[in-house]
Write a structure and sequence with these properties.
The protein has about 350 residues and is α/β, with parallel strands linked by helices. The chain contains 16 helices and 13 strands. Helix 4 crosses helix 11.
Length: about 350
């Protein structure tokens, strides 16, 4: 039995949002389209996509935005334009940046830019990390929150210092905001305040929002106009973008409204985890509605525990398990979404107890 088949057999899943079947998803999309008289866009031109792009641009405090079929293309285009404008191909990246971890060196193989890894891989960036760079940077790419280190964010004061440094040194500051929606509750700031000082921002339409895929890149009107041309050049000029936009737009407002509830549930989860000292949590205090659970067992053992609990109890504890720095240890990611929000407290405790019993 594959991992996907095993998960589908479970009646309960802890991380993430509920996963409707394709039939349920398409039926909901069809009903929403009928209720709102939606027509297809043609190569990105149409009322739905235009209004949705502008809605996101306005929420983030930018002049314009453009739909991108993937975040990988969105960020590649943003960095290409930023480096052209600043006359330097160097882009400062955190060691855990998505570009370095998950994009198979596309920026190097395609000659888009040169990545310069700076900062501590286990901590968010500081302005001092940037000041220590002796080279002329074309851009700085900052992820908020930083997924690979448990959803950590710099403090608000540190974030403002990073913004000031980039502005003073004519460095394009770009946000990898794949999970930007999740940072408002932790920062205690609105989206436009968080984005203020960033020259461009990318957001995902499925991570957190529960859409089918896609992304949006926001920035100045001229920057986005140039980005549209490069998205076309890189193969992103899909004929109909309607399915991706509908899947996100039909639940966009509800998801954003629920983000404070997800964060409140995360706070509760942190308190609950105090009763399970065998599990270490990163970060020490929640900075978004996501976290890493560090387990005192190997990656292989963690997966074996997960699969056994799934088969015997119908509970899916987590998805991917990763090797930790210490031998015989591993860590897993929990995104606190609809599943944990709607789960009875005692059911969460039962799941945690089953996990710990396997150690």
């Amino acid at each position: 039995m594959t991992e996907t088949e095993l998960r589908l057999q479970c009646h309960t899943a802890l991380p993430g949002h509920r996963q409707p079947t394709p039939a349920d998803t398409f039926a909901a999309m069809s009903a929403w389209c009928a209720d709102n008289n939606i027509v297809h866009d043609i190569y990105g031109e149409g009322p739905l996509i235009g209004q949705f792009e502008q809605k996101i641009a306005s929420l983030l405090g930018y002049e314009a935005a453009v739909f991108c079929v993937t975040g990988t293309i969105a960020q590649s285009v943003a960095m290409r334009l930023a480096c052209q404008d600043r006359g330097s191909s160097l882009v400062a990246l955190h060691p855990t940046a998505h570009v370095l971890r998950h994009e198979r060196s596309n920026h190097e193989l395609f000659g888009t830019f040169q990545g310069l890894s700076i900062g501590d891989p286990h901590r968010p960036w500081t302005a001092d990390d940037l000041r220590a760079v002796p080279d002329v940077l074309g851009a700085v790419q900052l992820e908020l929150p930083m997924r690979e280190i448990g959803g950590q964010c710099p403090s608000w004061e540190e974030l403002e210092a990073i913004k000031r440094h980039c502005k003073a040194n004519n460095i394009h500051l770009h946000m990898d905001g794949a999970r930007l929606w999740e940072t408002q509750a932790a920062f205690g700031q609105g989206l436009s305040a968080i984005c203020s000082g960033f020259d461009s921002t990318y957001v995902s339409l499925y991570k957190g929002l529960g859409g089918m895929g896609g992304a949006v890149l926001a920035g100045s009107r001229s920057f986005i106009g140039r980005a549209r041309a490069w998205l076309h050049r890189q193969g992103g000029n899909t004929y109909h973008r309607t399915p991706y936009v509908v899947a996100a737009a039909m639940q966009f407002d509800a998801r954003l409204t629920a983000m404070p509830q997800y964060f409140a549930r995360t706070l509760w989860l942190y308190e609950t985890l105090r009763d399970y000292p065998a599990i270490a949590v990163n970060p020490a205090k929640p900075q978004a509605n996501m976290l890493h659970l560090h387990l005192p067992v190997s990656r292989e053992k963690a997966i074996a525990i997960r699969n056994q609990v799934a088969r015997e109890h119908g509970i899916w504890l987590f998805g991917r398990a990763s090797h930790a720095a210490l031998p015989g240890h591993s860590y897993v990611e929990w995104y606190v979404g609809d599943n944990l929000l709607g789960m009875e407290d005692q059911q969460v405790r039962k799941a945690l107890a089953l996990l710990v019993q396997g150690f």
